[in-house]
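Contributing new records

If you add data, match the layout below exactly. Sequence lines come first and carry their own label; structure lines follow with theirs. Keep one chain per record. Anything else will be rejected by the validation script.
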Amino acid sequence: MIKHLRSAADLDAATATLILDTAAEMAALSGREVKKLPALRGRTVVNLFYEDSTRTRISFEAAAKRLSADVINFSAKGSSVSKGESLKDTALTLQAMGADAVVIRHPASGAPHRLAEWVDGSVVNAGDGTHEHPTQALLDAYTMRSRLGRLDGLKVAIVGDVLHSRVARSNVLLLTTLGAQVTVVGPPTLIPLDTAAALAEKTQVSYDLDAVLPDSDVVMMLRVQTERMQDSYFPSAREYSRRYGLDMRRMRRLPEHAIVMHPGPMNRGMEIAPEVADSPRSTIVEQVANGVSVRMAVLYLLLGGK
């Protein structure tokens, strides 16, 4: 098993499948009346979050506690980071405390890779800048496999703001490793040329959502990350929704078995209509629940579980 999970590229097909299979076991155990396992008793997991987060931070905290690990939640706000302390000095502090695993979310792409140079424990990337979010890709893959029974050969459309999406990058890497066929869809301004070129061998690129839908098993809608946009990438929110939003009319173009995903948080009414988000085809709530099981599996395996 690998020591760190900094990128979906760290995972080969066998390791990714082991994590998904272990997550299925964790999910079965979570159905018990007493949900805690003694697997990581005596271990310390630090959640080091430099960006605001609800789902991911709570999910990792719940995962570590269900494995009986001691959990330290470290927020940049109200800490020495707000006084100018560097990532390296924070890492050395965590090292001195004996952290066995550090889960990091950071606005700078590559921060988990640097952190891994400074601590002896395992490092898990919970999102770095616009780079990657590997555990989100794992829980997405787990959800697809649970709903559709397989990953190999699935046709997955990832739609929207690919340019700023760390979720999209990790999903492309992981899903293609596991045999899925991925198409990224969006306006040309939100599908970066370097990404299109780099992924050309593994993925297809389309600027026409309506053309892709009838042949898709999975449609993953991405949030439009307006907070990362300094320029105008499309004429208006209404125009974006008209061209790339998933509403009921478009959902009817999907095959009957197809599912709709979204990593959250959603811009309801922009990239996804409320009635689509709340429909039986939507896996959005399942993705949140599955995230705990998948992160339990990651922590368990990284910290020496058999």
